[in-house]
């Protein structure tokens, strides 16, 4: 089937939510149990009525991140964006991206693919609550992607999915083939050290509640275990979980009873991408993978600076110990966009989410930000003048206009360039200030 034109769903869907045969799945006992899990307990547990009062924000698939980390702030916003959420679950990433596109009045469509009818029903109800017309739903198996004739995509989200699949590399390779020229992906996988304790309890529950039992029976056993879990259990000591332990039955089941749950060190994650023909443009947040930020000893920092970036990232993961997931943006090998020049006076900086005035208020008297990398809080040093620059960043003023305003406050161009370089370098690495694409 000829791929449809970007921005058009015509010819793709004989009916909304078309059912696709699953005979191409790599069926096994674990896969059968996994399918039953997500029908019984769609994850994450969401109430469509909540869409009237809040939008869940995260990474990957934040539109400003896609513009910057995938397309290098070079792809015009007026160009239609065709996106696939591969394994959308109940729709967090898809709803966020479709809402961002709609609010910005940008052309595009988001295709939500999942084999769970129950999960898709919730995602569809969430989209209807928001009156989103740029989102479409396909029930089908990600392991049979090549048979679905969905065409090519400018952006693919595969978040929290690869680590549950029979063959993650084969699926990621197939997703790479589904990228349009110049396109990229947002990926998330579980990480081992921040999930300390999870796999111990999973192993115990695999014996107490085997995967061939009905999901309801397995969940009952898990609840009973958690009510009396010894205080010495490593899971009790782990504060890196939010939605899983507070997310109702679906969260508990996904954390402790999932029949196939891999985790990847950052080195293994980068290797997986490499084997699939991808290279990372950004690990999220980039500064999180810099061990120098929490190693103040000058000799250690000097030693770290001598090491390759991948080795630094591994050290950060091993020493911090609290990374429960890894999030990355990636493109085909050799297609990494040129890094935008933040010193170009025509460049337009934009706050990723938190308003600049609010971020400035969070700066301490010593000009540091107490930045949280999960449960790890690190003091981030910024130039004193950043306190005055941040409230001026509105997504409309360019860097030259910021310099003009600072000049009226006694900050000359030379000084401004130094301050802006230092400020942007750190705030970009924190994923707080990015650059806006052209109209």
UniProtKB/TrEMBL annotation:
Superkingdom: Bacteria
Presence of keyword Transcription: no
GO terms assigned for molecular function: methyltransferase activity
Alphabetical UniProt keywords: Methyltransferase, Transferase
Pfam families the UniProt entry points to: Methyltransf_12
GO terms classed as biological process: methylation
Matches recorded under Gene3D superfamilies: Vaccinia Virus protein VP39
Membrane-spanning intervals of the chain: none
InterPro entries: Methyltransf_12 (IPR013217), SAM-dependent_MTases_sf (IPR029063)
Domain Methyltransferase type: 85-183
Transferase recorded as keyword: yes
Stretches assigned to coiled coil: none
Protein name, entry field: Class I SAM-dependent methyltransferase
Organism from which the protein derives: Acetobacter garciniae
